[in-house]
């Protein structure tokens, strides 16, 4: 599987209204459960919350990458850009306005680490973050992220 195949267009949301970290993770889990039929939305959400209890996935610069290992078939991801930033982890970290969520098969290591490295490179660049934030449709956001993943 290619990295760009991990993010289908129907798991991408531009300019979505989110109230809290919990709400954002519920939306991400809902999108992912529609692709990974063996897992329920609640199971994915609980796994994200368990991972957050180990330590925040807030990277700073307005971005969080919640992720967890599950008994799923392939790496799946969802990408959300919020209409307004939220306080993600009740800490001094920056509020976030982008959330890139991953579920990873328990047996997968290489592609998972490659994807996290690419995401870190993409999100560390302020021009990339601005380009992504300026996407006005789900399709535009998905195309921009796929293009960035291909270029890193």
Number of β-strand runs = 6
The whole-angstrom Rg is 14 Å
Shape, per Cα inertia axes: globular
Overall CATH architecture: 3-Layer(aba) Sandwich
Helical residue percent band: 40-55%
Unreliable spans are none
Overall mean pLDDT score?
A: 92
The biggest beta sheet reads: 6 strands, mixed
SSE order, one letter for each helix or strand: EHHEEEEEHHH
| Class from secondary-structure proportions | alpha/beta
Number of helices: 5
Strand content: 15-25%
Describe the structure.
This protein is of the alpha/beta class. The protein has a single domain, classed as Mannitol-specific EII, Chain A (3-Layer(aba) Sandwich), CATH 3.40.930.10. Helix content is 42%, strand content 23%. The chain has five helices and six strands, in the order βααβββββααα. It has helices at residues 21-33, 41-54, 110-124, 126-133, 138-151; strands at 12-16, 58-60, 63-64, 67-70, 76-86, 96-105. Strands 1, 2, 3, 4, 5 and 6 form a six-stranded mixed beta sheet that branches. Strand 2 and strand 3 form a beta hairpin. The longest helix has 15 residues, at 110-124. It starts with 11 loop residues before the first strand and ends with a helix. The model has no long low-confidence stretch (mean pLDDT 92).
């Amino acid at each position: 599987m290619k990295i760009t195949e991990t993010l289908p267009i129907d798991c991408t949301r531009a300019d979505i209204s989110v109230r809290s970290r919990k709400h954002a993770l519920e939306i991400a889990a809902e999108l992912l459960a529609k692709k990974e039929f063996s897992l329920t939305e609640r199971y994915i959400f609980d796994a994200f919350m368990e991972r957050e209890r180990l330590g925040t996935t807030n990277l700073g610069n307005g971005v969080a990458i919640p992720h967890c290992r599950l008994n799923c078939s392939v790496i799946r991801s969802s990408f959300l850009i919020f209409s307004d930033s939220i306080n993600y982890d009740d800490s001094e970290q920056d509020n976030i306005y982008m959330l890139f969520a991953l579920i990873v098969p328990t047996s997968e290591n290489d592609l998972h680490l490659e994807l996290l490295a690419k995401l870190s490179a993409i999100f560390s660049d302020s021009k990339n973050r601005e380009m992504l934030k300026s996407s006005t449709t789900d399709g535009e956001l998905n195309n921009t992220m796929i293009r960035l993943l291909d270029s890193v």
